[in-house]
Amino acid sequence: MLSGHELMQEREHSSMQRRTVGLAVVLSLLLPLPIGAETSESAAVLGPKWMTVHQVKSLVGPSVRIDEQGTVSAAWVEEEKDTRTVLFAKSDKPGGPLGAAVPVNQPSEAVYYRQESPAFTVQGNDVFVAWSLTHPKLTPDTPFAGELRLSMSRDGGQTFAPSILVNDDGQVIQHTFDSMQSAPNGTLHLAWIDGREGKKEPGTFVARSVDHGQTVTKNFKIDDGTCVCCRTAVATSADGIVYVAWRKIFEGNIRETVVAQSVDGGETFSPSVVVGHDRWVYPACPHRPASLGVDRSGRLYVVWYTEGADETPALYLAYSDDQGKSFSPRQQLNRSRGTFPDHPQMAVDPAGRIVVVWEEQSPVRREVVVSYSLNRGRSFTQPIKVNEKNGQTPTVAVNQHGTVVMGWKEHAMPAHRLVIQMMQFPDASIAAGKTGDDGP
């Protein structure tokens, strides 16, 4: 017999199936612009673009999500007159636009001034947002100290309860550069960078919530020698394997992207494994995170930035078919020779269709570009530009139907604006027939 929670999920799933309206068709009618392929049948289709103007002092973000019905959610941070607010908004209909923004933090909760785009996840009507609070005991000697907080909404993001504390050390230090992912069983997995042991380099720490965000488990460290400000990344597979990625410092200031995995639901983690063997020597933190994704066959994908032994800025993708124990040869994604590629983010749907967004910087412009693969990472389309004004910090998500949402911020003086761009992958069977998607 199903429990009340399981029965509710089953009813939601059945209702979702009845209400699905074919967002791919909607998008193609709104803006039938195939990209990256010769025929529209085998190409992704760019959908509508939505913009919101924010006349504030500064803007951070956004992060984006899309559910199986096509509802788009976003979270970001605004600063006005030295007051910072974490905000959440979602669309009232599939594909956008976003509705009214709702504050996530309480008025008494001071958001850390170097807050990254908030990490968040959506489980049905529950919304969970992780963010950093300026430490209540902040002093001039501890200017970067903060607490990692978890906020929760039970009404689809209309209101948020007071946040709970994630880190359990009680120290006046930095707890940030966090990431969060929801496993298929509903467990929330969090990872972040933490210097509680007082070592020269901080560690990568993890925790989880197994009761829908009411409490957080005891924190534990999965590795030392973490690059201090390259954000962590978390992904979970359909069978519950948890992956965490970060940049690790090796002897001689060699900085490599590494991955650790947990096969017991986040209770323990394997030793970290180097992904690209880039041999990048850099005596500081590059402030550039990796991105993770897993398809339904269990293939783990990693996208990251490095300059390698030859000090050439580049973005790479590699994948693993043995649960992160080893990785394929890396594949370069950026192709422009006249720009600087930066801040890559990736999303992977169950069929192994991959979309990657990043910045292409020149002395006078910052462009946001997108490239995708329909064949589980064997090949990628030529990157195309999607922004209008100077674009920055792109992010991306995809649902199981292959509907993609991309988000970024643009500088449009005297204001800032957030941009949401939709894209639809072709039908999975068409993609497989055109590209050999079922291959290795």
Explain what the structure shows.
There is one protein chain. The protein is mainly beta and about 450 residues long. It has one domain: Neuraminidase (6 Propeller), CATH 2.120.10. The chain has helices at about 5-20, 25-30, 430-435; strands spanning about 35, 45-55, 60-65, 70-80, 85-90, 100-105, 120-125, 125-135, 145-155, 165, 175-180, 190-195, 205-210, 220-225, 235, 240-250, 255-260, 275, 280, 290-295, 300-305, 315-320, 330, 340-350, 355-360, 365-375, 385, 390-400, 405-410, 415-425. A five-stranded antiparallel sheet has the order 1-2-30-29-28, with helices on one face. Strands 15, 16, 17, 18 and 19 form a five-stranded antiparallel sheet that branches. Strands 3-4-5-6 form a four-stranded antiparallel sheet, with no helix packed on it. Strand 21 (about 300-305) and strand 22 (about 315-320) form a beta hairpin. The chain is globular, with a radius of gyration of 21 Å. The relative contact order is 0.13.
